[in-house]
Design a protein that fits this description.
- The chain is α/β, with parallel strands linked by helices.
- It folds into two domains: 137 residues, Rossmann fold (3-Layer(aba) Sandwich), CATH 3.40.50.720; 179 residues, 3-Layer(aba) Sandwich (Rossmann fold), CATH 3.40.50.720.
- The strands form two sheets. Strands 1-3-2-4-5-6 form a six-stranded mixed sheet, sandwiched between helices. Strands 8-7-9-10-11-12 form a six-stranded parallel sheet.
- Helix 6 crosses helix 9.
- The protein is elongated and about 75 Å long.
- Bound molecules: glyoxylic acid.
- Glyoxylic acid binds next to loops.
Length: 336
């Protein structure tokens, strides 16, 4: 465990004692998300060198007075974690997704939760379109072939294996802010948009399908932009893939477990769908190695939220949420 604000003098130690304790729950280096002036307003604890339960066992006095947690997307905040932090009042996650947080338990315990709001929506939508264009026009595959001297510049390559995006029918799963950003971008490419969502949206005229199988049947492409929860886990299964058909493409910029990954691999290997662009994976941080040998897949390392511009934005946002909460002001991007 590190005490982030290493105190050198007794005065500084005393000052720190009066600041709200914020526990950083994320990968090494994640604590840099809390920058001055915000970082100076809190007593920051970082357990990144120890698993949280070990930190709690050796630093019970700290855990008992942690008032806020600042966490990252891949770092679960389960009921067990919450039990280790009896004074917790606020959880700030630097992610748009909240599938790593037991929101029901937070609600029950009266712990407020703030997230990344729409900070990453445009970047994620940009990446979705980038992945789709790459899968269709085989940019990464051609790049690899040229560099490995497997291919010379030839007119045969495009004719044999690349496809046109303009005019394609695209089904978006989850028409929240990210889904809408994807829709707007793809409309500019002349694509026809329809969607599946928990409910029909009154603010768009895109056709709505209440079933993902029907959405897949009626489209060339599926772009997954919805939250992961008990209802959506493995919603993209073999039935959906077969409905999408041989030329069909799946782009996933949401959460890996929306797709039944084993079935996706099988469909890609047997060419039962045309291709996939994946920024997220079922067993992150691991990526199933069978993807590596497939030329109809473009892979990206869960990068949709890591542009330089958005990193600066999220640093401000987490600080402002913490500051607002401890000044009794409304959270900037509340979840609960
Ligand atoms: O995946 C990234 C996020 O949830 O913000």
């Amino acid at each position: 465990m590190e005490d982030q604000n290493q105190c050198t003098t007794r005065d500084e130690q005393l000052k720190n004692l009066n600041l709200p304790k914020v526990l950083i729950h994320g990968p090494p280096g994640f604590s840099s998300v809390l920058q001055p002036p915000f970082s100076q307003k809190f007593h920051i604890l970082n357990h990144s060198s120890l698993p949280l339960h070990k930190f709690a066992a050796t630093h019970a006095h700290h855990c008992s007075s942690v008032a806020a947690v600042l966490c990252d997307g891949g770092y679960p905040v389960t009921a067990d974690v919450l039990r280790l932090l009896p004074s917790l009042r606020l959880l700030v996650t630097a992610s748009a997704g909240t599938d790593h947080v037991d929101l029901e338990e937070c609600r029950r315990l009266g712990v407020r939760v703030a997230g990344a709001g729409n900070m990453f929506s445009e970047d994620v939508a940009d990446l979705a379109v980038g992945l789709l264009i790459d899968v269709m026009m085989k940019i990464s595959a051609a790049n690899r072939c040229l560099r490995e001297r497997i291919l010379v510049v030839s007119r045969d390559f495009p004719l044999a294996s690349i496809f046109k995006l303009t005019g394609k029918k695209v089904g978006i799963v989850g028409l929240g802010k990210i889904g809408l950003e994807v829709a707007h971008r793809l409309e500019a490419f002349g694509c026809m948009i329809s969607y599946n969502s928990r409910s029909k949206k009154t603010f768009v005229s895109y056709p709505f399908y209440s079933s993902v199988v029907e959405l897949a049947t009626n489209n060339n492409v599926l772009v997954l932009c919805c939250a992961l929860n008990d209802q959506t886990r493995h919603m993209i299964n073999r039935e959906v893939m077969l409905a999408l058909g041989k030329g069909g493409i799946i782009v996933n910029v949401a959460r890996g477990a929306l797709i039944y990954e084993k079935e996706l691999l099988r469909c890609l290997m047997e060419r039962e769908i045309g291709g996939a662009g994946l920024d997220v994976f079922e067993n992150e941080p691991l990526v199933c190695e069978e993807f590596f040998s497939l030329d109809n897949v473009v892979l990206s390392p869960h990068a949709g939220f890591s542009t330089l511009e958005s990193h600066d934005g999220i640093c401000q946002l987490v600080g402002r949420n913490l500051e607002a909460f401890f000044s009794n002001k409304p959270l900037i991007t509340p979840i609960i």
